[in-house]
Amino acid sequence: MISVERDERVAVLRLAHGKVNALDLELLRAITSAMAELRAEDGVDAVVLTGSGRAFSAGVDLRRVLDGGPAYVRQYLPALTEAILAVFDWPRPVVAAINGHAIAGGCVFAAACDLRLMSQGTIGVTELLVGVPFPAAALEVFRHAAGIAGSELVLSGRTVDPATARAAGLLHAVVEPERLLPEAVSRARQLAAIPRAAYEITKRQLHRPAAELIATGRRLDDPAVEDHWCRPEIIAGIGAYLDRITARRPS
């Protein structure tokens, strides 16, 4: 589900869960646990988050949502928030090595990292195309990373190639596939060379506007977001969306 490798004092956390690293409840809890364990290790100065196969992560495992219904959703959405914040709030450098498609929640996890390098695939947040709103943490972390392009990408649900994402400011670099992981580890090591206390304080300062919006949104918006996801017509709409996606795939 998740592997953790060490490159000297850089930990490479690799998602390895099914064909496209879809985010189900178990994977979210594994991400949260892994980031907490790495945070407690004195020998880890930075983390590189990457995927396996052809995807970084294709986002929420909608089949599990469809099968589990409201009971699953009410466990899932809080776990999604905790996993996003486990990455976003990790005090030391976190670099995303986006090896393939980073869609919806997968894009949000990339956005939660300090630097984002991508080699191939498409990236974007497609939640509104499915008919579901964003939990506060997902929306504000993406907005923090995407800047001026964020609102349009959120509202349109469009996905873009790495060059377009780089031009929009969502990515910091586009890297050839064979160079992606070495470059991400090198960038992580460069950031880790900055004095730790100064880095941690500055990262907290940079994140404060998003953190305050997340705290407010979790209180004011997330209960309504959760109720929306649980509505029978929304779950039925998720099923219809999956049927459309399946129908478009080559046989």
From TrEMBL:
Protein name per Swiss-Prot or TrEMBL: Enoyl-CoA hydratase
Entry's Gene Ontology BP terms: fatty acid beta-oxidation
PANTHER family, A to Z: ENOYL-COA HYDRATASE, MITOCHONDRIAL, ENOYL-COA HYDRATASE-RELATED
GO molecular function terms noted in the UniProt entry: catalytic activity
Species per Swiss-Prot/TrEMBL record: Kutzneria albida DSM 43870
InterPro entries: ClpP/crotonase-like_dom_sf, Enoyl-CoA_hydra/iso
